[in-house]
Amino acid sequence: MTRPSPWFIAVLLLPGIGLIAVFIGAVIYIAIAQSVGFYNLTGDSGFSMEFWEKLIGRKSYWTAVRYSLFIGFWAAVLSVAVAYPLALWLRKPFKGSLTISAILKAPLMIHGIVAAFLFLNIISYNGLVNQLLVWTGIFDDPRRLQNDSGAVGLLFLQVWKNMPFALLLLTGAVQSIPQDTLNAAQDLGAGTVERFRRIIAPLTVSAMQAALIIVFIDALADFTFQTTVGPTNRQSLSQYMEFFRGRGRWNEAAGVGVTLMALSLIGAVLMALTARLIFRERPIARVVTWYETRRVEAQT
Amino acid sequence: MIKKLLIASVLALSATPLLAEGHATAWTDIEAQAKEEGEVTWFVWYFGDRFREFTQQFTDETGITVTIPDGDHASNIDKFLAETNRDAGDIDVLAFGVDRVESIPTDMLMMLDNLPEDEGRMTEIVGVDGSNTALGYWGNQTGIAYDPTKIAQADLPQSVEDFAAFWAANPGKMGFNYENGGSGPSFLHNILRVMSDDAYADGELSDDKIAKTDDGIALFNEYAANYEITASNADSLTRLSDGEFTLVPAWEDHMAGLQNSGEIRSDLAFYIPEMGMFGGGNFVAIPKNAPHPAAAQLFIAWLTSPEVQTELNALFGSMPMNTGSDDSAALVPNSMRDRQMPWTQNPFRDAVLDRFIEDVVLER
Description:
heterodimer; A: 300 residues; mainly alpha; 73% helix; 0% strand; B: alpha/beta; 2 domains; 15% strand; globular
């Protein structure tokens, strides 16, 4: 059988990949073009760096960049950190594990805005948390917990919403590790942390990378949680973009959009590379090396 | 010469009934055409669900279906601007706030000359003229909502000094938003306006005018720990109702609407401080490329009629935009209305808000 021509393969792929490339490409093109003065709804259109100069001259722009990166990074790391022990716990089925797994994944089915308002009700000035803390005597009076400037509430919601997704990815990866490998490590004296660090994490690093990238991009571009429970003394990039768009300042909004896209790409690549660098050898090679070393040590 | 003038006058007088009849016929024709068109699409950015319910009576009276798509203020205006080059757009009636008038080119709107005579209709809101292409249908006013169980009417802050004294004596008991709604911005702009001489006299932007807001910005920074920044208009009112705050800026109509629907406490009250706060209203207009122009005119005639304006006042707390209406359901007495200040136009207003974010919000 002769190999089909690359052109033929390209034509076959075109309806799928081509459409995606055209739609994503069009959005990126328009955003970049608007950020440099083209496609104005009213007035003259033409190349200008004026909007970028205004944007990067603002403290609020750099605050939004730093703040969004902070939220994206910690949401991704914390979601994966919480998902790992749960994935390991649920690795082998036990009575009730299916129910627990289903409950843990329930946040995937709840829309972010619903969760945000439920959370607000719970932590509001006269909400359940304040009532409980006043009733137990821990607080003398209700305290202001919502929209905390440290973004603790926002990160809690981000992890609550994104952890199930990380769990979904990691559960499959963790379940694929042969029990023999883990038993062998245990026989050779590896404790819980050592088994995770030297065997489980390297063997599931691809799933970890996927989870980190997806959660990072999702949290970096967050709008819903930020506008409801996020700090009011700073704006996320998407909130900042909406701030400009709502005032008809499309060119500056496009500049923020381009920043958001660039940071999503760069940040996701960095997250994935960092995870890979921490476990820099190929997982199986690392495991085999470690196993051989331990075996030699045990023999001597 | 006198003879010619007399003849001309007699001819003009004799033609008047014909003209009046002509106008009446034209409106009858418009009504007939409107019924033929059978539908009207109203782009209004707030109270979508409630307006769908409210406009059902127009459908019942005329048989014309009213469609209200979802969309925010800016998106609706952007859509209107984006489709001006189309032969027929999607918008029959566009609602827009007085603060966005400068975004709406009047030459892209249909003249409203054909509407039946009604001297009570308002074409001007706080000095902004709809230029015979837009009519006021919704009057609104920003002010301060307060919890009467926590503060007596006599103690309500009326001036910049009063607000500073309130912040000093009641830390954390006042909150306001700077985005997601105009009530908080109205409050902060008016504090800055009072403290900046004539900088707010017009919408022109200059470094000198921005520099005049220095004292106001310093005041907000001095008391930064004593007031809260809220997330939106609704967030301010919800937290006032919940007992967290004593004072919050609010829209009169927004507050009345939430009280009528039971979403916030009905005992909360509202006033316009003596230093003045922004008020205004919203216009309706018909784009030149409206797909159902006759139905759109009929709808606007209905919406701005005294009866419907009275109903809007009773149901939503909006200020009627027809002098023939009854405004007794308003939250503030008419004697307070002279404290209304017109919204300062852009680019100055946005530039001051940008400065407030940079120099006050981000410094918190």
